[in-house]
Write a structure and sequence with these properties.
Elements lengths: L9 E4 L4 E3 L4 E3 L6 E4 L9 E3 L3 E3 L4 E5 L9 E11 L5 E10 L4 E4 L7 E11 L11 E6 L17 H20 L1
Parallel strand pairs: 6-12
Antiparallel strand pairs: 1-4, 2-3, 5-7, 7-10, 8-9, 8-11, 11-12
Length: 180
Amino acid sequence: VIAGLELGKRWYFQARLLYEGDDENVTGPWSQQYSFDLSSIPDRPSLTLSKGVINEGDSVTARWGYTSEDGTTQAYADICLASYDNNHNIVYGDIIAHVETGQSVELVYDWQTDQTYFFCVRTTSTSGRQSEWSEPASLFVAPPIEISVTGISLVIGYTADEYVLEQSSMLYNIQQNQSI
């Protein structure tokens, strides 16, 4: 019985026979090497973004959690760009961020206006085991808002008839002042 092995590691074993004789001990040859992996694959992370919509040139913070059944810690995480194929399957693309420590990173990228980006994260434990990719988180890069003024209305608190009457009165007063 082998007990007390630390979880999250790969253990290697070899054995050989020991014959204890009256005068001397005799050992046999070593067996082939066997390994036992007592590490588990990290749980699938969940990725969240600090914003769902940004402007071109902005950045966004990506956050995720790390858990593992064997108690190992996160060694690193990779974030990739993702997309969907014609059958709505996720396609994992280029890795755009590699994080050695922590569970968040600021994503700075050459965002293109009026585009939606999808991101996934995958973690790797200190025992070298990788999680599945997370579900995609989406980010939309909004086009700039253009505002144009088409008219100005300074009429506040008047009915249409009062406005016409007021304008006529002002015009009469202006004509009166000019004739003096």
